[in-house]
Amino acid sequence: MSFSTRKSAFAVALAAAFSIPSLAAVIPAGTQLHATQTLIRNNGSEPETLDPALAESVGANNITRDVFEGLTANDNTGKTVPGVAESWKQTDLTTWVFKLRANAKWSNGDPVTAEDFVFGIRRFMDPKTASVYANTFGIFLLNGVEVVKGTKPPAELGVKALDRLTLEVKTPYPVSFLPALMTNNNLGPIHKASLEKNGKDWTKPGNLVSNGAYVLKEWQVNNRVVIEKNPQYWDAANVQLTKVTYLPIEDGTADVKMFESGENEWVYQLPPGTYEKSKAQFPKENRNAPMIGIRYYSLQNKNPAFADVRVRKALSMVIDRDILSQRVTADGQAPAYSLMVAGVEGASATPYEWATWPMDRRVAEAKKLLEQAGVKPGTKYTFSYNTSEYHKKMAVFAASEWKTKLGLNIETETMEFKVLLKKRHDGDFQMARNGWLADYNDATTFLALVKCDSDNNNNFNCNRQAEALIDQGSQSADPVKRKALLTQASKMIMDDYPMIPLLQYSLPRLVKAYVGGYSLENAQDRFRSKDLFIIKH
Amino acid sequence: MWSYTLRRALATLPTLLAVITVCYLMLHATPGGPFDGERKVSAAVLANLQAKYHLDLPLWQQYLLYLKSLLQGDLGASFRYADWSVNDLVANAMPVSLAIGGGSMLISLVIGIGLGIVAALRQNSVVDHGVMLIGNIGSAFPSFVIGPVLILVFAIWLKWLPAGGWDSFQPRFMVLPVALLTFINVATIGRVMRGSLIEVLHSNFIRTARAKGLPTRVVVLRHALKPALLPVVSVIGPLAISSITAALVTETVFSLPGLGKLIVNGAGNRDYTLVLGLVVMITVLAVLLNLLVDLAYAWLDPKIRY
Q1: Alpha carbon of A5 to those of A98, A442, A444, A481: distances in Å?
Q2: DSSP helix/strand/coil, A460
Q3: Mutate to test the interface with B, among A421, A453, A505 (most CBs of B within 10 A)
Q4: N or C: which end of chain B has fewer CB within 10 A?
Q5: How open is the CA angle A347-A349-A352, to the nearest 5 degrees?
Q6: Nearest Cα to Cα of residue A180 among A60, A71, A76, A103
Q7: Choosing among B26, B27, B35, B42, which should be mutated to test the A contact, i.e. which has the most A CBs within 10 A?
């Protein structure tokens, strides 16, 4: 990326230092706490690692978020709050300075220093570490892309310890959401001495030296991970839960059964098709919150069948998102008509104008578009999805919409997930199921799905004019201007109909009524156990 | 017999090599690799990952490297579970699978053979029909139906036992999964035992034993049981292997950290080394069990000599 920085445009207001007091586990007045403060939460899968640099899955990050702490963190409402950094300021367009708290300690009592962050972040980007997320976040750090590629040494990364408690982070262009980005544990500190001493076993219980609110006590693969309160943690006085057990149950039915029998207090996600029934059965425990994520269908824009925008538009127009949301998936997801979903920062949603039209009008318009594009009734299209009852239901619905409303002949093909991923990455499909959950709360995470040459653009579309707007927005230090530019770019791209937005993800789950601190505003589902507590029951 | 055992053990080596080679090639030929994720990794990251796991080398070179580490007893590093070696993963899961699968096999043998004998001796009686009914239910209902029913009754309604999980061989976590596997295995063993014993009881040598005036107990236990066990022994091998290594449904229903879950997740994640490691273990186990079955034949059937 070649973004220039223009210091002259830098608004003075941005130089103000941010300092927000952080309190863990905000307990409402009058709440009586239970004598035993322990929680068993299902994590949905076995963590692939507890090394924060290598963690990629939601499950692994949930645990590393408890065991480690980065510069910043997300509280239970998803807000960015101070972590190890007690304050930060943007000193120029591309430079941020984070002031670390003096009382932050590792679980062995060593102080957490700026050097620990430098070591952790350099290691994360180092090609030798081979972290899957290195490039995702590397693009936001000065020389990050080059370090990941191996063309520059990790020492040249834009991260520097100014003194023991001051960390400077340089970006290649203005990154206004850097504090939010720093909530990701991939970009956190590592205790160098314990890593070097224990080698590949450094993340095992007994070896792992961490700086979060919890320490690792037990890790049995495919069975459980147990963490306990870290007495060395700087905010330990405000941490209520003394022990948290993470379960790796993948099967939703088994998850719910263990919840019912009392061996689990937090169902990761309700099994498909059970949301309404579960709402009636567990009115107090049922929690369903929208997430910053989108379910969509990718159209292979380079495939001759989809070369004409009118075809792509027609296919998008006739899918009734209301029926899809209320009757087909029936799990509280909101219809989506835009790339940006509700709650995302840095750009607004730009729903299609036909979203409010009656369906008859939409169908008539879509038929006209197909006719103009020369698509005859009975034309065959192939839709690919990965084997799953949930995706099958959605695919059958979409295929029936295209068939009954437009007379198209839709062939659906189902395959193993890895096979679908390979096909999507290679562009070897016509239409394919797709979905995206934000890595960080900023519009750029969604723009990655439609930007030219983006690794995550499975539609293979490209709009150079919109690309210029995105570049312009990214260079702007004015958040209002940036938002306007990114919104405009997003609309411009979506008017090309590169993909079919369908639903905004939600996360229907069960959490015992006595678990305090759970919030429905946490749109990235990042719940630190330090923000939770057990109410007397 | 010792030389036979040694010969059989040596003959497993080419079998093992063939299994590894075929499995190795099939895994690498399957579309989608270990690093194909929801987020496509950039070319630079992919190159780093491939270098880390030697996937940048020609396939034959990777294969030889794998065989070399295998000879040293090293099953390699897991592609998915970065903090664990395949040896660690197998060593953690194997005891769980052996306890559940092996335990249920032992109980199933005792109950299955017992019920089979009773049913055969009381052919067409109420007892026989009862045993056959259990056998038919066990065969007809899949484990993903029986398992949740067991959980509903014993964990949710009665609250006697946990609905799932595992805690260092505590019996209360083992009861339901062992019961489920036992129920299914008893059905097979009981039916085979019944059929076989009925057939043996109609043989001439049994008629002779009866004619000599021997009591039924002696006729059954001393003369009929051994030959009647032959077909049961034949089904024990595959039954034991499936109970130990392929009890995926049982492991899923009861959230057990066993081998079945590892192998299915391993295949889904394209965790080449993990899948190969488990295939090696299962092949060794299968060969071992088949050898034991063959040796049991010799003990049961005087006509067989090795």
Answers
A1: 20, 20, 18, 16
A2: coil
A3: A421
A4: N
A5: 140
A6: A71
A7: B42
Contact B188, B138 (CB under 8 A): yes
Q: CB atoms < 10 A from the CB of A351, how many?
A: 16
Could you say which residues from 24 to 83 on chain A have a Cβ atom under 8 Å away from some Cβ of chain B? 46, 48-51, 54, 56
A251 and B CB contact within 8 Å: yes
**Cα–Cα distance, B260 to B237 (Å, whole number):** 17
Q: Is B54 on the interface with A (CB under 8 A)?
A: no
SS3 call for A411: strand
Residues B100 and B177 sit within 8 Å (Cβ to Cβ): yes
HEC letters along B147-194: HHHHHHHHHHHCCCCCCCCCCCCCHHHHHHHHHHHHHHHHHHHHHHHH
CB A162 within 8 A of CB A95: no
Q: Residue A17 corresponds to which tokens in the numbers above?
A: 């230092």
Neighbours of A536 (CB within 10 A): 9
Crossing angle of the two packed helices A464-475 and A479-494, in degrees rounded to 10 = 170
Give the torsion sign (CA, B184, B186, B190, B196).
positive
Whether A166 contacts A100, CB under 8 Å: yes
| CA A110/CA B224 separation, integer angstroms | 74
The structure tokens listed for A522 are: 């946490």
| Measured distance CA(B55)–CA(B271) in Å, rounded | 12
**Upper half-sphere CA count for residue A530 (Cβ side, 13 Å):** 29
Torsion of CA B161, B166, B171, B176, to 10 degrees: 50
**For residue A236, how far is the Cα from the chain centroid?**
28
Q: What tens-digit pLDDT sequence spans chain A (537 residues)?
A: 333 334 444 443 344 444 444 456 678 888 999 999 999 999 999 999 999 999 999 999 999 999 999 999 999 999 999 999 999 999 999 999 999 999 999 999 999 999 999 999 999 999 999 898 999 999 999 999 999 999 999 999 999 999 999 999 999 999 989 999 999 999 999 999 999 999 999 999 999 999 999 999 999 999 999 999 999 999 999 999 999 999 999 999 999 999 999 999 999 999 988 999 999 999 999 999 999 999 999 999 999 999 999 999 999 999 999 999 999 999 999 999 999 999 999 999 999 999 999 999 999 999 999 999 999 999 999 999 999 999 999 999 999 999 999 999 999 999 999 999 999 999 999 999 999 999 889 999 999 999 998 989 999 999 999 999 999 998 888 899 999 999 999 999 999 999 999 999 999 999 999 999 999 999 999 999 999 999 999
**Is B164 in Cβ contact with A257 (below 8 Å)?**
yes
From A459, A147, A426, A150, select the one nearest A299 (Cα to Cα).
A459
Which residues lie below 8 Å from residue B248, measured CB to CB, with a gap of 6+?
B260, B261, B263, B264
The separation between CA A202 and the C-alpha centre of its own chain, rounded to angstroms, equals: 27
Q: How many CB atoms lie within 10 A of CB B226?
A: 14
* Cα nearest neighbour of A415 on chain B: B31
pLDDT tens digits for range B78-109: 999 989 999 999 999 999 999 999 999 999 99
- Token match 């484990």: residue? B143
Q: Which residue has the tokens 């080698």?
A: A199
Q: What does the radius of gyration of chain B's CA atoms come to, in whole angstroms? A: 24
